[in-house]
Write a structure and sequence with these properties.
two-stranded antiparallel ribbon; mainly alpha; single chain; 12 helices
Length: about 325
């Protein structure tokens, strides 16, 4: 049944293409729930992709080919994301700089740093060498062998981690004292401060969590679908993740489904090519579909977005 295969392929590709977006969008959710705008998701994904590719390549060479190489690259990307998010945290929280300007600056800095060190490490080339070691898909025994629908039971480990991240994020945000403090800081920092909550420390932690998760998104791309890093590896996906965050109204599960929606727009490309639709519709139109949807969401055409009350507002200790 050809239609069943197309649906299965679309579902499978949607999960693959959405995983990186979910990581970055959930990361942005932690930062913005604390009141810090994080438009730097694009730059954080770039740093994660660069670090994941470079560390995996050199570790794999040093170990002579090992299945742990991509895992070391993935963990290194998380550490790099946390470190690279600190300038945005310090500028936004300590020095009360304009958070949008700080995020944009970090995006430009990320691509510059990544390309510079890529050229240094790979003899002037603007892209890393193709990774021999990357994540393999995990299969559910027996179910993965089913005809037609077997592809639904094969997934990259990052997709499974992504599901746990969404569940853990929901529990942390709505079922723990830390989540309550985080939301209080993002809604009314002065009242939170009065109740003894350290607003600055809470915001620092939230921004670093966003750096870690966004970098996981970038590393996911190079370790599953692209297998190398170039200047176009991320190609605006950080901004799409930001749109998913707004579309998902800063809620973990809604944000995940919003990211799946954008991922499906990307997955449609290969499915439509298989079905022959591209014989009648220009391929360029299909390629721009995710970006058109992003513009529509950011333009506020998909419902009203209720952002945290203190989002983008620097907090001054002792202010009234």
């Amino acid at each position: 049944m050809e239609w069943l295969k197309l649906i299965v392929d679309l579902t499978h590709n949607t999960i693959v293409f959405s995983t990186a977006l979910v990581f970055a969008a959930i990361g942005g959710m932690f930062s913005e729930r604390s009141g810090v705008v994080n438009i730097a998701l694009e730059g954080l994904m770039i740093i994660g992709a660069f670090t994941g590719a470079v560390v995996t390549f050199f570790v794999d060479q040093a170990l002579g080919g090992s299945i742990i190489s991509p895992w070391i690259g993935f963990i290194s990307a998380i550490v790099a994301g946390i470190i690279f998010s600190l300038p945005h945290a310090v500028a936004s929280i300590r020095y009360r700089a304009d958070q949008v300007v700080s995020g944009i600056a970090l995006n430009f800095l990320a691509i510059g740093v990544a390309i510079y060190f890529t050229k240094v490490l790979f003899n002037g080339s603007a892209q890393t060498k193709t990774l021999k070691a990357s994540f393999d898909k995990w299969e559910i025994p027996f179910l993965a062998d089913l005809p037609a629908v077997g592809a639904l039971f094969r997934a990259y480990p990052t997709s499974i981690i992504m599901l746990f991240v969404v569940i853990i994020s929901y529990v942390v945000l709505f079922k723990t004292p830390f989540g309550l403090r985080l939301r209080a800081v993002g809604e009314h920092p002065k009242a939170a401060d009065t109740m003894g909550i350290n607003v600055f420390r809470t915001r620092y932690i939230a921004v670093m969590i966003s750096g870690a998760l966004a970098a996981m998104g970038g590393a996911t791309l190079v370790l599953t679908t692209t297998n190398n890093f170039t200047h176009s590896t991320i190609s605006g996906q950080g901004f799409i993740a930001l749109a998913a965050l707004i579309f998902g109204k800063w809620h973990p599960t809604k944000t995940m489904f919003a990211a799946l929606f954008f991922g499906m727009a990307t997955a449609l490309r290969s499915v439509l090519q298989q079905s022959g639709v591209t014989d009648y519709v220009p391929v360029d139109f299909i390629l721009i579909l995710p970006y058109v949807l992003t513009i529509l969401v950011l333009a506020g055409l998909i419902g009203r977005a209720d952002a945290p009350s203190a989002l983008g507002k620097p907090y001054e200790l002792g202010s009234r």
